[in-house]
Amino acid sequence: MLCRICKSKGERKKAVIFIRHHRLALCKEHFVEWFERQTEKTIKKFKMFSKREKVLVAVSGGKDSLSLWFALHRLGYETYGFHVSLGIKGWDYSERSLEMCRKLSERIGRPLIVFDLKEEFGYTIEEIAKGTGRRDVCSVCGTFKRYLMNKVAREHGFKVVATGHNLDDESALLLSNTIRWEIGYLGRQAPVLPEEGGFARKVKPFCFLTEKETVSYAIVNNIEFLKSGCPNAKEATSATFKRALALIEHEMPGTKLRFYKEFLKKARPLFEREVKRELQLNECQVCGMPTTAPVCAVCKALERLRERC
């Protein structure tokens, strides 16, 4: 298959990717241009951040977050990486994840802020989940990561935190929340969550790009990333929703993009109004971070662990 853009110029250059829902075949050069243009377009469309702002990029060591850091750096934004070392021993997961983040940090010459759970709190994420009686490590991990992103952003003077969530992530989350009619989550799912009540602005510049596109971007740019997923990921239900959407997407290309875009345009405003009526934020009595309860979920979990020891 030939690159469509090269072909239009009378050149015969092989495509490295075919994007079905756009019917677009692109060579390496034109794919990188297209990918970065789409990222920039999303940033500007939702007014995520400007070149004058420092951007804290949450990096896990995987393809999406490292591709995001690399792309934002190439686009000229002032970026800083942020990695949470979870202390997961299986497959040497945490060590290898941190190594991937450090390699990209050195390659692009940008600082990497590392928060080690074991060093700072005294427990790994698996010890926290087990000690609080939670079988779902992924849920606990998500709670701690969101807390730490906001905490580190506040402590280091960042107003915006960027994550590598892609279209597959967003559409699977939307399907999951719609099936359960999680009004609160549906009202808060968006490419941008504004800074308010002590929370940093959260942005998702890859929300319209598929997982296939982000992994292809990482590969053609020789970005080293952790190819094996987290050992605890088997507990996550998101994979089931991704498989369901992949089946529909295969039969009807563009379904995921339409599903997510139409939600943002037509349904989310309704859910958002409902959430705003109910949401009341205050400071955690222990750490001072914003929460809807007297004591935030992280402080509650750590307190429970200390009581058991």
UniProtKB/TrEMBL annotation:
UniProt keyword terms in alphabetical order: 4Fe-4S, ATP-binding, Iron, Iron-sulfur, Magnesium, Metal-binding, Nucleotide-binding, Transferase, Zinc
GO MF, one annotated term: metal ion binding
Assigned GO CC terms: cytosolic tRNA wobble base thiouridylase complex
Residues reported in the UniProt entry to bind ATP: A58, V59, S60, D64, V84, G164, D169
Domain 2-thiouridine synthetase TtuA-like N-terminal LIM: 3-32
Pfam families: ATP_bind_3 (PF01171), TtuA_LIM_N (PF22082)
Statement: the UniProt record of this protein carries the keyword Ribonucleoprotein: no
Needed co-factor(s): [4Fe-4S] cluster; Mg(2+)
Annotated PROSITE patterns: UPF0021
InterPro entries in the cross-refs: Rossmann-like_a/b/a_fold, TilS/TtcA_N, tRNA_thiolation_TtcA_Ctu1, TtuA-like_LIM_N, UPF0021_CS
GO annotation terms (biological process): tRNA wobble position uridine thiolation
Domain named tRNA(Ile)-lysidine/2-thiocytidine synthase N-terminal: residues: 54-225
Superkingdom classification of source: Bacteria
Protein name listed in UniProt: PP-loop domain protein
Taxonomic source organism: Thermovibrio ammonificans (strain DSM 15698 / JCM 12110 / HB-1)
